[in-house]
Specification:
The complex is a heterodimer of chains A (121) and B (151).
Chain A lengths: L13 E4 L2 H11 L9 H7 L9 H16 L7 E5 L9 E12 L4 E9 L4
Antiparallel strand pairs in A: 1-3, 3-4
Chain B lengths: L6 H4 L9 E4 L2 H10 L5 H4 L8 H6 L27 E10 L8 E16 L2 E14 L4 E11 L1
Antiparallel strand pairs in B: 1-3, 2-5, 3-4, 4-5
Classes of the chains: A alpha+beta (121), B alpha+beta (151).
Chain lengths: 121, 151
């Protein structure tokens, strides 16, 4: 983390390609067998999705990563509150980013707003 | 209130899972870090676990024949709800201590609340599950509240 944090400062954004191999490895690492993540006929024909659904917690992980990479070893994440608004699909590219909303220079406590959004915003 | 939730369903509030104790390994951290696309070397080397690694550590490992046809396991903590279509939920997580290889951690999950609300297109059921993860010294390592919405 190079510059001194300031309210309104934007974090460097990161683009994530929602890759099918990554989905497989991620869900396997969790032991998540939910078909919507890897079974294309099931996801599209039975559940009516436009494609394979990116695992919700992976999007949550990308929220953490945008902060963690910016902090590097200058701090740690003590808490997060988030919700999944819309699904992301394999083949899409999403953007993770964030903004500093509160900063206490004495304690070093930071509050940030973070997002992962698709190309439709 | 629309009275969707019976006394029987509400009686499940407070129900807890048996504590689940797991060991953290460097290899599991490395696999998780690679699978999430992490770029931080401390995670890729498995020196310390990234945040959310506890999802990996405590996801229920159940036999294949207990999965539903869509590949999902039934959470034994939950009663049968009168609404079943899951909508997006939310998480509220507090990280108290870092997680490292060799740590033995124990998770306990509690169904902490069930309530209903009138939504724009009908009634919604909300439920909350609290997960507490402690080390062998009994210290809190991660606490997490998940809120799920059913319609």
């Amino acid at each position: 983390m190079t510059p001194e944090p300031a309210i309104g400062m934007a974090l460097p954004e990161r683009r994530h390609d929602c890759d099918v191999v990554q989905q497989m490895l991620y869900n396997a690492s969790l032991w998540n067998g939910h078909r919507i993540h890897f079974d294309m006929p099931y996801a599209t024909e039975v559940e009516g999705y436009p494609g394979l659904v990116v695992a919700g917690p992976l999007l949550g992980d990308w929220l953490h990563q945008i902060v963690d990479e910016w902090l590097d070893d200058a701090g740690m994440i003590t808490g997060i509150e988030y919700s999944n608004r819309v699904a992301a699909f394999v083949g899409e590219t999403v953007t993770a980013g964030g903004t500093v909303t509160q900063y206490d220079p004495d304690s070093g406590a930071l509050t940030l707003e973070v997002f992962v959004k698709n190309d439709r915003g | 209130m629309t009275g969707l939730l019976s006394t029987e369903v509400l009686s499940h509030i407070g129900r807890q899972t048996d504590p689940q104790r797991e060991i953290v390994t460097r290899r599991d951290i490395r696999k998780y870090a690679v699978a999430t696309g992490s770029r931080l070397q401390k995670y890729l080397d498995g020196d310390v676990a990234p945040p959310l690694f506890h999802l990996h550590l405590f996801w229920d490992v159940v036999p294949l024949d207990t999965l539903s046809p869509d590949g999902v396991f039934t959470d034994r903590l939950l009663p049968k709800f009168p609404l079943e279509k899951a909508m997006a939920g939310g998480l509220d997580i507090q990280y108290h201590q870092p997680i490292k290889p060799g740590d033995w951690l124990t998770a306990t999950r509690t169904l902490s609340n069930i309530y209903e609300k009138a939504g724009r297109s009908g009634a919604l059921i909300f439920y909350e599950v609290m997960m507490e993860i402690r080390n062998d010294a009994g210290e809190l390592v991660v606490s997490e509240k998940t809120t799920r919405i059913l319609r």
